[in-house]
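Tip: read the tokens left to right.
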């Protein structure tokens, strides 16, 4: 499709995909709801929150600000840098530090450069120290979130002023306003976050639509020349940086590099930089068909730039989990390019940068989802996609292409463990094994299952479709080894093993604990495991160790235990559920008791 006119308005809402587990759908046998919105689960991942808190406290930087910086740079992955463009340093760690900024941050945090590259705590501390140092130099008012912008630009590593501004305003501040889970809520409570400042709309700007792909924005690069022959292939790249850092470098005349397109990490924006009819400068290799299955050997000796279109992606060759939104947006773009230029959608004509330039490039990396990517492009182009057997039966029960799952995205495939079969659809998946049957997983529950490594993870295969909870508030799927429960307020979290058995015995979400608000986690002392829960304003937990078993603690007694230091306190772990005593409630712990007295609303400690 080639539309030469049109304008695109960009703002905070552009990146938001529609739907999630939020809205009930038509009444079918699984009570399904509308499709996925994976960005929320990705942003709110709490696995590194303790490190952001530690570094924030040490260097007087809001932990949520550090978390937001990590999200837009790497999506909390410990990246191992690789060079994509000459003149730009490789980036490392959760905070994507590289070059002089890495060295300065390591010095300020009193860690070695190697530690700041490879250790998550050292990397986050180096970034926090660096940001705090620039905040001091710029006399930032740390009590107002927006005033951090100059310091954030200074540590972005982006040379171009427009790119630095876009990185902070359009990527980092947008993510902070959308929310990063607990750390965002804690910052909001201080009255110093972006939530306390009006969103004036200053981040909204109007750009011309891309000349070849109207869903893109036009950020013209001067780095191109005339194409000598027609387009024959598409090359997939990774930026080895964030989206803004990427397009701003590729539009910089001094960089002497470009690409035709750059796709943002969430898929909510694509920049077109060079017309498809022009020759971009995105690969430094001459073509050798021996690197490409001995296909198109008549092109041997030519610069690969002569006959290719380059698509860059915000992210890294070391990325482990590519965002679904980004893959789908890129697949839509790929469909458009291949349809316009009559390019076969196969692995010989849709190729990785490292495939054609193997001596010094590896992008898009070992984890680029080639099968899913090409299947999505085929689906967007209306190519065939087959569904059959028990999966087809279940798909039809859910309304087929017009139901909750939407259109077919992949033909039936074998699961990596070799046991089951699955189809992916626009809004979810159906998985089948001989023992479990065929069941759908979608929305934020599917996102959480994916984060836990699908059927290879701790939960195994689904054994139910998505259902409403008896209280009418949430949704859940049961799996072979556990469950995932979701509500709009709590998000989607897994519960399994003996903690799940205890929660079930207490009455699931109708119990005093309510819904899970974390997945199962290891205790700081390394001995036990726990899930946190919430019912209304009251939080609770179930703690387990091999010697004590699984027991709940909640409300005022839990608050007191937390204030004393949880399991590291003199009380140790709980060894009973909360029970009634004269005048109140009580819980027993390894080394004592906590007793709540209703008349005085106090909790007292009694040691054994």
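Filled-in amino acids:
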């Amino acid at each position: 499709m080639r539309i030469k006119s049109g304008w695109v308005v960009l703002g905070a809402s552009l990146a938001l995909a529609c739907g999630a587990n939020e809205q009930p759908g038509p009444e079918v046998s699984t009570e399904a709801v509308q499709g996925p919105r994976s960005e929320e689960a990705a942003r709110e991942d709490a696995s590194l929150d303790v490190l952001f808190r530690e570094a924030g406290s040490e260097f007087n930087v809001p932990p949520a600000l550090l978390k937001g910086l990590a999200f837009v740079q790497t999506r909390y992955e410990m990246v191992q840098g690789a060079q994509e463009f000459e003149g730009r340093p490789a980036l490392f760690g959760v905070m994507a530090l590289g070059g002089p900024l890495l060295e300065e941050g390591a010095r300020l945090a009193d860690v070695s450069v190697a530690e700041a590259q490879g250790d998550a705590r050292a990397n986050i501390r180096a970034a926090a120290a660096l940001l705090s140092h620039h905040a001091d130099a710029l006399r930032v008012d740390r009590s107002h979130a927006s005033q951090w912008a100059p310091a954030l630009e200074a540590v972005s590593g982006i040379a171009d002023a427009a790119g630095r501004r876009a990185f902070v305003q359009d990527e980092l501040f947008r993510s902070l306003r959308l929310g990063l889970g607990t750390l965002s809520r804690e910052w909001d409570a201080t009255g110093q976050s972006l939530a306390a400042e009006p969103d004036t709309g200053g981040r909204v700007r109007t750009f011309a639509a891309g000349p070849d792909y109207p869903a893109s924005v036009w950020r013209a690069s001067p780095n191109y020349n005339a194409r000598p022959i027609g387009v024959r292939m598409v090359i997939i790249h990774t930026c080895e940086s964030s989206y803004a850092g990427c397009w701003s470098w590729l539009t910089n005349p001094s960089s002497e590099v470009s690409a035709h397109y750059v796709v943002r990490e969430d898929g909510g924006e694509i920049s077109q930089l060079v017309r498809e009819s022009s020759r971009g400068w995105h690969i430094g290799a001459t073509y050798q068909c021996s690197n490409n299955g001995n296909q198109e050997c008549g092109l041997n000796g030519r610069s690969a730039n002569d006959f290719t279109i380059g698509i860059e992606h915000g992210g890294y060759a070391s990325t482990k989990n590519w965002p679904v939104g980004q893959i789908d947006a890129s697949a839509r773009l790929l469909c458009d390019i291949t349809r316009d230029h009559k390019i076969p959608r196969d692995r010989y004509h849709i190729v990785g940068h490292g495939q054609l330039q193997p001596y010094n490039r590896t992008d898009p990396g070992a984890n680029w989802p080639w099968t899913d990517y090409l299947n999505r492009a085929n689906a967007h182009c209306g190519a065939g996609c087959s569904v059959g057997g028990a999966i087809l039966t279940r798909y039809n029960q859910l309304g087929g292409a017009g139901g909750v799952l939407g259109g077919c995205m992949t033909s039936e495939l074998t699961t990596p463990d070799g046991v089951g079969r699955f189809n992916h659809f626009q809004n979810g998946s159906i998985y089948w094994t001989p023992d479990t049957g065929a069941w759908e997983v979608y929305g934020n529950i599917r996102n959480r299952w994916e984060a836990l490594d699908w059927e290879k993870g701790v939960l195994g295969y689904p054994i139910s479709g998505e259902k409403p909870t008896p209280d009418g508030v949430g949704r859940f799927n049961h799996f072979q080894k556990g469950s995932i429960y979701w509500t709009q307020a709590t998000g989607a979290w897994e519960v399994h093993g003996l903690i799940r058995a205890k929660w079930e015995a207490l009455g699931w979400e109708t119990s005093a604990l309510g819904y899970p608000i974390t997945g199962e986690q290891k205790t700081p002392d390394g001995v036990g495991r726990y899930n946190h829960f919430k019912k209304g304003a009251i939080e609770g937990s179930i703690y387990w160790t091999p010697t004590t078993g699984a027991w709940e603690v909640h409300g005022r007694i839990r608050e007191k235990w937390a204030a004393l230091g949880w399991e590291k306190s003199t009380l140790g772990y709980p060894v009973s559920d909360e029970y009634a005593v004269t005048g109140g409630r009580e819980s027993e712990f390894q080394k004592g008791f906590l007793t709540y007295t209703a008349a005085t609303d106090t909790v007292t400690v009694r040691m054994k």
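The CA atoms of residues 241 and 315 lie 6 Å apart. The chain has 17 helices and 27 strands.
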